[in-house]
Request: fold
Amino acid sequence: MKRHHPCGSMEHGLSRRAFLNRTSLGSVGLAAGLGDIITSRTTIAEQVQAKSKRVLNIFLHGGVSQLETWDPKPNTDTGGPFRAIPTSVPGMHICELLPHTAKQMHRLSIVRSLDTKNGDHARGVAEMTTGRGRMPGADFPHLGAVTARALMPETFVLPGHVLIRSSPGGRNVESEFHSAAYLGPRYASMALYDANPPKFEDRPSEITDEADVRRNAVRARANERFLRRRRTAETEAYNFSYDQARELLANRHVFEISRESASDQERYGTSQFGKHCLLARRLLENGVPYVQVNHADYDTHHENFDFHIEQLGEFDQPFATLVADLADRGLLADTLICVMSEFGRTPKINKTYGRDHWGTAWSVVLGGSSIQPGAVIGKTNANGTEVTDRVVDHGHIFHTILQAVGVDSMGEFEIAGRTFPVADPSRGAIAELLT
Amino acid sequence: MTANATVNPQQTKLLQEYKLDRPLTACHWDPQSRFIFCGAEDFLIHRIDPASGEKITLAAHDSWIRAFGSSSDGETLYSGGYDGRLVFWPACAAKPEPLRILEAHQGWVRAIAVSPDGKHVATCGNDRLVKVWDAATGTLVREFSGHANHVYNLIYSQDSRQLFSCDLKGIVNAWALDADKPRALVTVEQLHGYDTTFRADIGGARSIALRGDGGQIALGGITKVSNAFAGVGEIIVALVNPADGKLDLVLQSKDKITGTTWGLAWHPDGFWVGVSGGGGGGWLYFWKGDMAEEFFRLQLKNDGRGMSLSPDGKRVAVAHVDNHLRTYSLV
Reply:
């Protein structure tokens, strides 16, 4: 008896629109693959342009302080002990804890007016990385999944959505896995830990090339038979994963920062975050559409200032080096950079020199690709307790990131005969930030 | 305590309150008892005349003030800030203007120590350096490197010939003024922790004092930290022998008060005084120094962030989080 897919359909076939697009673009290798989706309002030309784009998302877990980074308020009741320093953009100041980043601000922009109305870690992570308000029972795809889905060419042999982070052991709000939700598991994250490449297992030497070809043929036949009866997104993803694993073996060098020059390794430093940034550069150079680097932890309820010295001391130089390298190598025009967190920290300094959770007035940095460089969007009041101009939230940031890499964020994914908005339809991009 | 005790810690009581506009960060009693100097979460020094209650401000820092010191005659005040500056002031002037502004450290000046002979002022900071300045001219006399971490505190030996410094990881170095390299005195493990959950170091000597005979250094801080980012740890004072680096005793609180020891002093009657702030609230502690637990403890109105003993030993000034400087009488 032939089984139908659980959803009844066509999940793995091509939609009419996708079919038309694929036949038009197949010769240049741009069709997206499994259950192909194309945003409905996007022209083919725009999609072509988008395909060479990439997203680098630096996620500062725990809630980095906007006052100790992008929106300093020195010598106010909330400002803390740090000073503001000038940047490479006249009139733009950031916190003195970021001297190297300050020299790269002509390549970046600051959005100082986030009001996400949230002080919960898990909710903040979910909302900032899906661009949607969290709703019980609803599972939206991570920014990385959306990006990979939209930008990854079908013939791309590497994972399209890579998360670089520390080994598990930190708090569970530092995500280990990014869901692709209805986009399918193929677009979920592949995690790399501690700057190490994936754990490769070479083929045992006693298995010859010829034997390997034969056994793969057996596997493929068995697979095909199985798929005729049980075809689901998961089985497709499994098959894809197997093929991808073989490709990863063949391309393992992409994940090995030891192949970078000694001088480059020195420039990025010995900290784990430095190594993660160098690995991110390597992946982006090899065309991985979405790379996220997590850095933890910024949840500084106690001694916020000491800990921000410590954490931002790790962050500043490698991040600035990465921005400069992407620019020098001609990649910045096609690479969207974002530095986000799940929320900011309270302007009020608590009794143990800490700052608590704060989603009411905080900042995100964007740069590269189609982001206007050197801009400051939005404004907070004198001591940072409220946004006074251009309130935005996670939804606006999500749209802006996607539009900056050429994805029509107002479009829809068409999957299994159903349509899903690419991003929250009630929000839109920060238009003035896009060139 | 000596037989000729001049104070009775069990009688400690609130004496005076002085309200400022911001939470306080540090305080320092002028050696001649004329003034109490305070730092607050502004960029000013606040000079308070405890007799009249008159307050004036001294402006030269570009950040909060973290540390104070004085010449023995009290005529010169030294202030160190989160801006890395060491500033010399005419302490008693009607409207003090800086005598000297030194860009002393890259990053915070975390502590100041004045040599007992009055010749030198030493500072330490986030650039991992210990520096010695000529107290008369402000000239840099020595610069010592050897700590691998932020240097949190320092103090002179009684004979002014050695400096003892303690960093974030509880590493205590002894610096002879005529030597280039430090003598590693001891690592006080209890003064440091690495929080594997938050991936951050916490610790250091947040306060320091020398016993009256010079035979013991007290290092105050936080210990047994189970959550660095929430400040869940207990107050601690480690007593170290400066001659051989031996950890003589670790002072704690009977009820394992959560917090950090932000201020320490040796009382001439022969006991240690400490102040804490943190999750467990503000407390004044009195330890005899030969047993781990305090012989008396007084809960304060609010958390303490700094403490200074009056020159006559009869009062204690505490810098509080709730915008107040409070003095407490020990008699």
About this structure: The CA atoms of residues 205 and 221 of chain B lie 5 Å apart. The first strand of chain B starts at residue 13 and ends at 19.
